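Two folds, back to back.
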Amino acid sequence: MAARRQWSIAGQLFALQATVIVLLVAVAAGGAFWLARTDTEQAAREEVLAVAKTVAGSPDVRAALRSADPSAILQPYAEATRVETGTDFVVVMAPDRTRYSHPSPEQIGQKFLGEIEPALAGRAFTTTNVGTLGESVRAVAPIRDGDGRVVGLVSVGLTTRVINRRLEKQVPLLLGAAGPSLAVAGFGAWLLNRRLRRQTRGLGPAQMTRMYEYYDAVLHSVREGLVVLTTDRRVALVNDEGRRLLRLGAEPDLVDRPVAGLDLPPAVTDLLTTGRDAYDEPVLAGDRVLVANQRQARFEGDLVGTVLTLRDQTDLRALTSELDSVRALTDALQAQMHESANRLHTMLTLVELGRTAEAVELATRDLALAQQLTDRVVGAVADPALAALLLGKSAQAAERGVDLVIEPECRLDSSPLPTTDLLTVVGNLVDNALEAVAGTAPPRRVQVFVGVVGGDLVVRVSDSGPGLAADRVADAFRRGWSTKSTGRGLGLALVGQVVDRHGGDTEVGPAEGGGTRFAVRLPIPEEVG
């Protein structure tokens, strides 16, 4: 069975408005009709009362009442008055209700039907009664003689049929006013319905409720941060993960707030304020590495805002960094294997040629150099992870034709800080130095110092590269700065995060003999120191 079609909000509102408008117009028309009827009836009362008072005050009527045959005089007079005034009856009677005139001559001499007591008391009045001609609005006025005594009565009336005919003449006017009012109100309701239908996309209440519930549940449940902005750069939505990643949990309601007024990381603020497209762009938010994707949102070709999604890759970056270190060490070992194979072939050839002494000298010299480097690193650095990192970087530097020197003063018996943070600082500073000297003319040199100085852990890396311009020193530890031409590096920014987390400081300046020296000073916790 086909699903029952649901009315949209616009359709329901239009039906409700149409019903209300019809009811209002009907009530207004009914009220106007009632008022018109009341006015018509009141006008009829005033009309018959005026005629009755005029007839009652006529000297001819008083004289006729004193004659021997009042009907002979009063009947023609009353009929002439009735026709002239347009009333339905003019009846002159005696105080005992005996009629002297009537539109139906057979009723002359009969008793008048209806109330006359107020007129007998000397007061003219109007009333509605049913008489020989049917229901009518009538007026009864007293006829007085020269001494003021009531000697007769006059009743003038209009039947209800006549009053209704008068009222019917006003119906076209009432309909003429109600019709345009209904048309104008209906057209206004149609315009409002059209606008509302466009704004609600023709959805019904149940559909919009279901959409809101589903969308709200999904958007706040996904593991990606979501920030939606309007076209005027105001916040339309920030889901729970977005609040967590951007540290907005303590912020009040963010909806409709300008993005420029939010306390956001600079990289995120730059993305949101510019509205530019971004694809898997790394940004730093506090101690987290986020991957940002931003695109403009359009509906049926119209720009409706901007959508920014954020993924937390802090842990993945740490694992990637460790993997890069292992890969670098593997590459270095592979290069050493090839180098060792070449030297081994050389020594075997020397032995085959009978030049044993030279073969022994070559093997002893290479073994001594390798052992000397290992002894220096292991002797200076007790932490096995850091020692392995330095050895791997030494092999990597040798493969690139760079002389990596461990300064003689380098000494670290144990790591006073978390090993991962120490590896982040040393590894990224050394990588930055290797990149700085890449492509420069020999000799290429990188010096490394790690040790405790004055109660602080100091990491100092110098290179013989082209140096760092003074105007770029302040940007060195910001996200996106790199010695690479792409300018998309995160290494030094990660170093800056570690420094901030431990309350340390950094120093960037020229190295002795040219190049750049990066120095990081990290306070050693009291319980460790």
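---
second:
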Amino acid sequence: MPAPDTRLWAIDTPNTSYVVAVDEHDRLRGLHWGPRLSREQALALLELPESPFRPVVGREPRFDLGAASAFQYGHNGLQVRFADGTRDLELVFTEAIESEGGLEFVFTDRHYPLEVRARYRNHADSDVIERALTLRNNGTEPIEVVRADSATWVVPALDTPRLSQLHGEWGAETQLTRTTIPYGETVIGSRRGVTSHQANPWVAVDDGAATETSGRVWSTALAWSGSWRITVEKGPTGNVVVSAGFGHDPIAIRLGGGETLETPIAAGLHTERGFAGAASAWHEYTLAHVIPHPDEVRPILYNSWEATEFDFTAEDQMRLADRAAAMGCELFVMDDGWFGARVNDRAGLGDWTPNPDRFPDGLGPLIKHVHGLGMRFGIWVEPEMVNPDSDLYRAHPDWVYHQPHRRRSEVRQQLVLNLARQDVAEHIHAQLDELLSDNEIDFVKWDMNRPFTEAGWPGAEDPDRLWFDHTRNLYAILDRLRADHPDLRIESCSSGGGRVDFGILRRTDQVWTSDNTDALDRIAIQEGFAQAYAARVMGAWVTDSPNPLTRRAVPLDFRFHVAMAGVLAVGGDLRIWSDEEQARGAELVADYKRIRPTVQLGRRYPLRAGTVSGVQYAKDDAVVVLAWRAARSFAYPDPLLKLHGLDPDARYRDERTGRVHHGAILASHGLELGLDPADYASAMIELKRLP
């Protein structure tokens, strides 16, 4: 919705408007991000007074394109250094280009040959707005790009703004935290070369009063799988801006003459339906505009890692496949240890050919056996890594990230390949393409088990580009493999949940949420994950009890019911499961297959009542409730669990008991779960809306 005479535009979504204007100084200002406005209402924003400021101090930051310039003392989302040392920008507005579902603002520097394009994209079926920057050097001398954030979001003034973020570490990813935003700059991000376990590139801002079901929430997510940074800045009068982009200090990228730099997408969302409403909007956006095969329900996979680790033969894998198929699993994934000299974690990474001792006839017999059982076959790879004890490293020791006169620090006895090098990227693609072409592999678990260290590129003209080009080349390899092998499906793994973001999800079908498969711990991990990412992409395993990591003993039903909240998988050592556990596991797998379309493709609602928590999924006439309680205090009976999103005038039949409930009663009073009084009780309940 343009207003050319006033240089004001609105990016409209089904329920919201994001209104920007170019002011008399050619600065792009954010005027409104909230409920949808008419053209007349949007124009009235120009009549509002300026935010208060004192001339010596400067204005509060409310610019949609936060370019480094005079009086911009806070965070600047766009910073460059020209060849003569000049750092400030003086951008001149050139034009606004409208297209179907998009708007692009073009600026040029008043003196230097730098062109900046700020892009906005909206979708007719989503309140998510996508943004990115394109920088082009139209001259001949290089320009150093110090900072190029994809978006700076201007949030309306709030009395007590609160920040929601996801923090963690290995085995404790996506822990949700909500804190009052302090004055000044709050910076979160990753300097590790990968999205990271420690933080996730998603944040939300609310006024301190939002709940799961109501209240205003603004959130943003960066679609990038390398190093990144999000800066949340609160000014003296409470205004908040959120700036998100790739990279970290102190790296900078050289932009040569005629070169273009495109930033990753930063997506933003406003809702007045609380945190659960925001999460649902992100999930719907994921299914509609991010993942490659949104209508597919993910198969139940079995992964062999926790059963065998490195100690197995082809025959061992076949016996595990027999048990997995008997339980009802649909995809058998052979994990680490099948290639090169890989009998432990000290050798073989980089040599992606079958271990001749374990697979003297290649992978063919195992794959044929798995396919004969009616399952698909998947395999684990870690292409970005190399062991020093490998044929690849002995041939190309210069292919890893390293710096002159510095040690090459190892993690898990491995180093990181310099994927920013085009020859390395071509080699990795060629090896994987050959592996997939020579074998009927249906699924790849793509792992990445360590961050960058000594991240250098001796002899490179612009060594800092490795922080950007590594991820770009990773994306290019995945895109090529998917194009050449269209039936291939891919899971992103990074020592658990170290690479979960919308960038990798555009090229993969699911992600591995965490190496921690303890069902009780997973409840918190999965709750944080669900703030931005849909159940359709959340890998969740049922493993042995006591849990291999935490040593906590948890009943089989509890383990299954927690894992059913995402993409169910089995990762235990089925060779030691009793006949009773095998039989019950098969029943629970069958249960999940019935509810899978509702869980993976439906709308999610978090549930909580006292010590009982869970999730509800709804799609069409089906409602699924997964609920759990770790312990019951003082023998109090469990409370009823209030459901959400139901038609109050409709009736719903409990498929378990045949009892019919009124939607209004389920919403206002709740559902009786009938949990066992013992610790670690859980339930799966299917409700069907009656005609």
